[in-house]
């Protein structure tokens, strides 16, 4: 079941000790970069993600590999990138993460709306468009989902077309840092995995 390609999954994790690691822009950008790399590598279709100062929620549809393998790999790579960008060698993630399948039709969209409310409820920003660490497959696509005019989750304007970026020499990559990942178990059909 963990490699079901048509099934969306909610994956959640928190930082070690509830530390607000992602209050620093560089740390949050590092996690966003790793999520984009998971999509580009063809491992996940990232449907929605929200990164709060001490918590990550992401809804994904696995494309290749088992979730039990790709989630710990993502968390380890994200932690290594965060450690590199912040010069902080402390563990990023708590000892566990949780995931649960989203079986019912429309459940992923409903969860997406709930997750995107988190920065607003935490009073990090007044408008979601002002918060940098989120994305959703449903916002910005009015044909797929309707958003009421009074909804604070108004779609962001599409980005303008960019000129091609010149190719540069590859940057040397540092060896990955051993990392631990985790989150307290979610209710319902949640599963929790310890990462060595």
Mean pLDDT: 78
Number of strands: 6
Helix fraction bin: 25-40%
- SS field, number of helical segments: 4
* The CATH H-level homologous superfamily: Transposase IS200-like
- Largest beta-sheet details: 6 strands, antiparallel
| CATH-defined fold name | Alpha-Beta Plaits
Which architecture name does CATH use?
2-Layer Sandwich
What is the compact description of this entry?
The protein has 196 residues and is α+β, with helices and mostly antiparallel strands.
Describe what this molecule looks like in 3D.
This protein has a single domain (9-146, 176-194), classed as Transposase IS200-like (Alpha-Beta Plaits, 2-Layer Sandwich). It is globular, with a radius of gyration of 17 Å. The protein has a six-stranded antiparallel sheet, with helices on both faces. Helices cover 26% and strands 20% of the residues. With 196 residues, the chain is of the alpha+beta class. Helix 1 runs antiparallel to helix 2. Mean pLDDT is 78; it is low at 141-160 and 181-189. The protein is built from four helices and six strands.
């Amino acid at each position: 079941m963990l490699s079901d390609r048509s099934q969306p999954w909610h994956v959640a994790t928190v930082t070690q000790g509830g530390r607000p690691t992602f209050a620093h822009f560089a740390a949050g950008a590092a996690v966003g970069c790793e999520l984009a790399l998971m999509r580009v590598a063809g491992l996940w279709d990232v449907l929605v993600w929200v990164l709060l100062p001490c918590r990550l929620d992401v809804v994904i549809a696995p494309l290749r590999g088992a979730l039990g393998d790709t989630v710990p790999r993502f968390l380890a790579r994200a932690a290594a990138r965060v450690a590199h960008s912040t010069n902080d060698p402390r563990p990023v993630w708590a000892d566990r993460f949780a995931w649960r399948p989203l079986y019912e039709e429309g459940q992923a969209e409903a969860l997406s709306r709930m997750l995107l409310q988190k920065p607003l409820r935490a009073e990090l920003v007044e408008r979601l468009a002002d918060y940098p660490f989120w994305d959703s497959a449903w916002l910005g696509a009015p044909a797929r989902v309707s958003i009421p005019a009074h909804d604070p989750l108004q779609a962001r304007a599409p980005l303008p077309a960019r000129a091609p970026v010149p190719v540069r020499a590859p940057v040397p990559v540092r060896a990955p840092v051993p990392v631990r990942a985790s989150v307290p178990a979610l209710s319902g059909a949640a599963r929790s995995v310890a990462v060595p």
